[in-house]
Structures are given as C-alpha cells and as structure tokens.
Amino acid sequence: MKKGGCVYIMTNSRCTVLYTGVTSDLQSRMYQHLHRTYSNAFTSRYKIYKLVYYNFFSNIEEAIAEEKRLKGGSRVQKITLIEELNPNWEDLYEKEVKLW
Hints:
By secondary structure, the protein is α+β, with helices and mostly antiparallel strands. It has a single domain (5-99), classed as GIY-YIG endonuclease (3-Layer(aba) Sandwich). The chain contains five helices and three strands, in the order ββααβααα. Strands 2-1-3 form a three-stranded antiparallel sheet, with helices on both faces. The longest helix is centred in the middle third of the chain and has 13 residues, at 60-72. 24% of the residues are buried.
C-alpha cells in the first residue's frame, strides 16, 4: 500500500524566509522542525518555525512532484499560493495540525 504525502511551506517570525518541504507525516516532521532535531538544518539555522501552507496528496510521488514544482517556482508564486489559503500568514501548526 502506498502512503500519502504532504507538501508544506514554513517561514520565520518576520515572514522573510520561506522553506518548502515534503513529508509523509506532517505532525512528526513539524515536531522535528520545532524541536531542532537537526540543528544544522536550514530551518534551524534560519529560525523557521511557522507553518503557513500545507497540501495533502494521495501518494508520496505526487507530493514530491509538487514540492519540486514549488521549489522551481519563484518566491512570488509561493507567496501567492500561501495568501490564497492563508491570507494572514497564521501559524497553521498551532491552529490546525497540532490539534490532530
């Protein structure tokens, strides 16, 4: 059985840096980001702790393809995507994901 996947975008407190990632378990991955499991990782170095966008896919291959598409796109495209679903740039981890 194939497992689904999730593409997500995170930012820092001032919303100046964007990070795009993919995972099969968003809650666990967010825990790793928030607790700096990998202290030398990009999100740890740039203090990126705010989840501003996520989108689930039925299989991980689709999620990986979307992550590559987003990473290949411009910052403006990412901001537009975020603001379509989260215009106030709220922390969706605190608001939604953490409650699962």
